[in-house]
Amino acid sequence: MKKNLQINFAAILLFLGVNIIFSQQVSINNNIPLQSLIENNLANGCVEISNVSSSINGSSDGFTSYGAFQRSGSNFPLENGIVLSTGNASSGGNTSNGNELSEGSRSWGSDSDIESFIGLGTMANATVIEFDFVSLTDMIQFNYVLASEEYFANFPCNAFDGFVFLIRETSSTGPYQNIAVVPGGSDPVTVGNIHDAIPTQCAASNDQYFDGYGFGDTNYNGRTTVLTAGTTVLPNVQYHVKLVVAESPDLTQPHPLSDTSVFIEANTFTELDLGDDINTCSGSVTLNGEIQNPLASYAWFRDNILISGETNPTLTTSTSGLYRVEISINGNNCIIQDEVNVTIDTELAANPISNFYLCDNDNNGLETFDLSTKNTDVENAVQNLPINYSITYYTSTIDRDTPANNITSPIISSGQTIYVRVEDLNTGCLIYGEFDLIVNPLPIVTQPSSLDVCDNDNIPDSSTEIDLSQKDNQITGSNPDLFVTYHFTPMDANSGLNPISQPYVNTNPTETLYVRVANNTTGCVISSGLTLTINVTNGNTGIVRNTQYIDACDSDHDGYYDNFDLTSVLNDILNGETGFLPPTYHTSQADAESGSSPIANPGNYANTDQDEQVIYLRLEDNTTGCLAIIPIEIHTNLLLTGTNIPATGFAFCDEDDDGSVDVYLNTLENVIANGLPNVSVTYYETEANRDANTMPIDTSNPYVLTSSVTVYLRIENGSCTELSEVLLRINPVVTFSDINPIPYCDNDDDGFTTVDFNSFNDIITAGTPDFNVRYFLNPTDADNGTNQLPQYYDTSSGTFYARIESNITPCYTVNDFQLEVIPAPTVMQPADQYYCNDNNSSVRNIRLQDLIDNNSIVIDPTNLIIEFFDNQTDADNFDVNNPSNNLDKQSYDATTQTIYIRVESTDATACYNTTSFNIVVNTNPDIIPISPYQICVDAGTSDADFYMRDKDLEILNGQFDKTVRYFRDVLMTDEIDKNLAYNSNGAETIYVRVENISDLTCYKEASFLLEIGTNPNYNSNFTNFPPDCQNEALLRTFDLEAKRQEIATGSTNALDIQFYLDENDAIIKANNSLPDLYDSQELQGQFYTRIENTANGCFIIEEVRFNTFPKPVFQTATIDPVCDTDHDGNTYFDLTNALFLVDNIRFGGVTYTYYLDDILSMQIPPNQINSYPVSGTTTIYVQVETDTGCTDSIPLLLQVNLPPLINTIDNISDCINPTNTYDLSQIDDIVVNNTNDVTISYYESSNDALNNTGAYNGKIFNYPSAGSFPIHVRVEDNNNGCPIFTSFNLEINPNPLSGTTPNLIYCDDDFDTSNRLEFNLSDNDAVILGGQNPNDYSVYYYRNDVNNAEDDRNRLDLPYLATNGETIYARIENNSTGCFSVTQFQTIINPLPVIPLNDIESVCINDLPRTLSADTGNSGDTYLWWTGETTPTIEVDLSDLSPDRWVEVTTASPQSCSYRREFDLIQSVQATIEATATADFTDPNTITVTVSGIGDYQYILDNGEPQDSNVFTNVSLGPHIVTIIDLNGCEPIETDVFVIDIPKFVTPNNDRYFDTWHIVGIERLPGTLVYIYNRYGKLLKTLHHTSIGWDGTFNGQNMPADDYWFSADIIHNGESFNIKGHFALKR
């Protein structure tokens, strides 16, 4: 409990008028140069400031940590001044920020002076400002507030963020004086030195100077009250000031902690203080205005009248009044002044004393009151408590005034007034007060009957929501002043703790709850013996409660059906259950619950809602009366109304722009079914196929969509079939042209502006309709559609990405564009223009051009167009090419208004800037009737201080250009200073004069009354909420109703008590008061409590503070497994090695406790923590507890691991290699049977293996030469990290020698394409051994890969079938050591000569003699024929014919490979064509060729492929060439053949192909006539055999494309016959 505000009625009106202001924050400007910051925002012109500097601040982290602040309409306690911060200064205000302020890095630095004065160690993020000044007075004094994020949870117990105000004479080298100290002592001002009590954590520290939490006017969690830093100084002497704020670091954290700021109010550095107002019984008082400046002159005033002759620094007076001293300094224009109210009297009144309330616990109407307990209340009510005083109590004013019969012991009373007398024992001054004794009765209550409830919800489990409040009226007898709460235990009911939240969900079918009843007015409580028994009867658990569906399958599809049988689903719902009253059916849930308006004939119901309707079935248990309400959806056509068939169809994007999309129709079935059971969908390409239920689309394969297609649907569910259709749409991805750049005008000249992205839409889409455009900073966001930029975005020129989306389809494309922000012309703000009209006219004629001529708008108007307007819209929309709505610059009739100026560039950009100024045309004020000015005071107070300024808002009533003056007399001669307190008993008339600000002769006069009201009385000793931990949801629930009852205890007024989060909401009584049970996630703060006397509207605002401790949140708990090196499963854990990740904690301050069970009942003894024995892997449980007592727990797995199993290793032998290295990884499989889950490493020594240091890199062992080397092995399990060790000797043996091996060269034995030949590779053995003993060494041969030889795999068998040029690897191996060397050679196969002769060669009798050629084409080859000839060619004739001819060819040296080619020499002859025959006028046409001769012949038609058959089929009409070739080599022979037939179409388009129609080959059919008819039998053309054919015309007109008929009288080979048919005319 902290703050008590007494608000008068006029202030209420003020707050109601401006409540929005109080949600604002202080404004902070951190862009002010340092010199100006101190000169203009901390001091004023009356003080000389010099040498301003800042050696440490946030600039190292890229921001400014100091600045100027303004209250800016918020409720911050300081008006303006400077702010120093440990973070970014501007983050402390301007806009609301709910995130923790923790800015800056450790590299920022600190200051040794603040660390010395605070004395708690190293600090961080200091901001230092230093300067020199010269004071005019003997005192300086500054008000300041320390605000910090450290005011959070229990953080103040550890934090020492603080502020020092250091001062010394500039010429001094001595220590600084810190004048920023906790009042009444020398402790520095830190978070740790000023904070509330945090129970269980730390006691309060100077909490009277802690203002509270979460005010909202800054972004800090809490702050101090306004503190004062002051000291005496020597006038006219220069002093050095050093201001420092710094924060306390948590060295366990990587960054500095939460930020802190100090707000210092602006001051003149010329402090003068006459003290508080004086109320005294003394005969006189002395006022002291001494400033110890020899250049000072003094003038004293009483009630604003100069006191003649009083020019001394002090004034002694015996007269009451308002006193003011004005001090002027020689050589300085500043006036220093202060004032004080002096009241001199012998009897004074105390402030109101709260009443004394007791509850009548024994119901006899009497209670015993110990009046000595009221002494503290009396002392607090005395304004200036004397040093020596006495307090006495009386039952009457006569006894008090006498004094006599004072009360000295507790008194028994039923209620009375007690009169208080406080006497100053030194002066005899008397102070009077009074209060009432009030005995309040206990609430009158009735024991409630049991609360019988049915579990009617959809989960019948004997647990349901119960409204306990339905028993309140029975318990209280409907008394509205009584408040009932329900509790789980009698103790909670007695204490009021843990009230049960409503609605209550029971746990057991029968429960007993405990009742507490409190009187909201008196606070008296009764709970003993009051209980409430709850009996919950379970609903039926066997019935089916899911929504049921009824489908009429209505054939006329009109949406209505007359014969729904609602009872058809009853058996499915009952599911065999019985014992219900007759079921009823209802059209609404409410009717079903109440049982009203049942459907009369549920077996034959006609729906009233078209297509579908919900009916509610009511089932009432015949025994228990419990209900079940089951919804029934009735559909006229369920498969149409319950399914999902989009009216616009399904759309698919052609993302690869190939014109097609694969659609999987089977995936659409669930979409269409829309959750309905047993629904199947069949798709058809045509409506006819669907209706006939034939040719469904195969949905197992994708349906290729190349254009928008309607598919037809057959929807079935086993009992009904519905037909429908849906459109499948393929949508192309539309592309748009790039638009670069897009110019955009800045609204000022800084090149940075707010762009309206929507204004680019038509530019981006070129006005294409049905597209939406969204904008992004990068292409990835544009493609994903994430992090979209807002419509209005602050930016300079740059690149942006437009995502262009179709409004019809899901398709989109992304275009980038360059935005060019063009600065607007630079303008100045013209001064406002004021005019006053004597004739009360509100219009004034002015010349606007003057503002241009005198350069009030721009410095140089050249190339600028300047126009004036009476609204911003016209100024923004002005078109220089079509001017409208611009004002006459030469003569304009102005009223009180704003004039808007548009300054536009004449260049191509046409960018413009606007500014404005006000024209004020004064008129006589308008005064409405003024309401009385009421101030609320405590009981017993007869007067009050009125501040007349509080009436300004009401009187002015929106007249911004007027001022209000107040007077005591009707003649307006005795003026009241409206900014000073005006004391009155309320029965007084105040006279008002309202004047124009710029013309005091324009005024009106009025008056109003002053009134006094009484504040509410209440229990002012209520308590704050005690600290508590967050619940599992990281919230805390506050019982505000209980707090309301506590506050109302003992009040004699009718109170309205409401709680708010914002003080100003409480003041204006906003409609956002908090509920009785309020869940808050805030960790500290206060509730602003409005306590209102409903009789007169007077109210008081109290604070109820709370502090909630963060609940630690265990995220993870891990501990490294332990290796069981002896494989027995038993080992020990050091639990202090466990690693915990706990959120929501800070500054350490946590303890961990270990348990065997998850309910944390069996704690592991502390003496086992460092060596906890386990037998195999097990789980224990860890509880974390903060120093605030908040806890969380988590399981911790203790994993016992075994090392790997290894094998015994014998010595390992190997042969020396060229790199003198050995790859030890080949030993891995020897060390263990399975290397998958282990890491094996090798070392020079056992110590290295044990310490896992110096392992052979890459498992490669380097040796100098052959020899024996010890190797040590470490094998570690990859899964658990457990190691085991072994060792072996590595024996390195020398390799045998191998010589250079020549290639093996053989001649091929055939002409196969494999180019393979069998080689005896052992021919090279002796060369390879090179003289080494063949008994000691072996030679083996390998192919393809040297690895085969090195790995001794795939040895070759001898002899070996090798290919030409194949590389053969030879391995010479020591038979004892296995060491080897590898050499290589190639197998060379020299080819046989290729002789170009066939197995059979012919001699054509038509062409003798025949030349035979065996020429290989290779020079150097030699030839031998059977004839003995040795030339490459010979000539033969018929005499050489024989089957056994040969020729032998030998290749040139060095190959010298020979081959004999044997062949038969036969005779042949050219073919003779005997006849050719064609099958004309047939379909298909054929050609048959008859030949004679002894050759082997083949036939070719028109240079086609040769064929063995002499018949050609499917021959096209017209001329052809037939060729006969002899396969034995004789020359081919050709003949011409013609096929006569009739074309099937004509295309008369002059392309020279089928431009006319006639029988092909008609010229070979002389005498033939052809007749052409249309389809109706009309003769169109007669063609002779000499005609070129029909060109598709009749009488010169083109005939249409159609079928035409012909009749041909053919004469062919002497025979006549007729052919009829038709052909097509195509155009």
Q: Can you describe what's shown?
A:
The protein has 1627 residues and is mainly β. The protein folds into 14 domains: 25-265, no CATH class; 278-344, Immunoglobulins (Immunoglobulin-like), CATH 2.60.40.10; 347-441, Immunoglobulin-like (Sandwich), CATH 2.60.40; 558-627, no CATH class; 643-732, Sandwich (Immunoglobulin-like); 743-822, no CATH class; 834-922; 933-1014, no CATH class; and more. Helices cover 8% and strands 40% of the residues. The protein is built from 23 helices and 111 strands. Strands 2, 4, 5, 7, 11, 12, 13 and 15 form an 8-stranded antiparallel sheet that branches. Strands 3, 6, 8, 9, 10 and 14 form a 6-stranded antiparallel sheet that branches. The longest helix has 10 residues, at 9-18. It starts with a strand and ends with a strand.
Features:
Immunoglobulin-like, 8% helix, 23 helices, 1627 residues, disordered N terminus, six-stranded antiparallel β-sheet, eight-stranded antiparallel β-sheet, mainly beta
Secondary structure layout:
Layout: E1 4-7, H1 9-18, E2 27-29, H2 34-41, E3 48-53, E4 66-70, E5 80-85, H3 112-118, E6 124-134, E7 139-148, E8 162-169, E9 177-178, E10 189-190, E11 210-213, E12 222-224, E13 227-232, E14 238-247, E15 260-265, E16 278-280, E17 285-288, E18 296-302, E19 305-306, E20 314-317, E21 321-329, E22 335-344, E23 347-349, E24 356-360, E25 367-369, H4 375-381, E26 389-394, H5 397-401, E27 411-413, E28 415-424, E29 430-441, E30 451-455, E31 465-466, H6 472-476, E32 482-487, H7 490-495, E33 504-505, E34 510-519, E35 525-526, E36 531-538, E37 548-551, H8 570-574, E38 584-586, H9 589-594, E39 612-620, E40 627-635, H10 638-641, E41 650-654, E42 661-663, H11 668-673, E43 680-684, H12 687-692, E44 703-705, E45 709-716, E46 721-732, E47 742-745, E48 753-756, H13 761-765, E49 771-776, H14 779-784, E50 792-795, E51 798-806, E52 812-822, E53 833-836, E54 844-846, H15 849-853, E55 864-869, H16 872-877, E56 892-894, E57 897-905, E58 912-922, E59 933-937, E60 944-946, H17 952-956, E61 962-967, E62 975-976, E63 982-984, ...
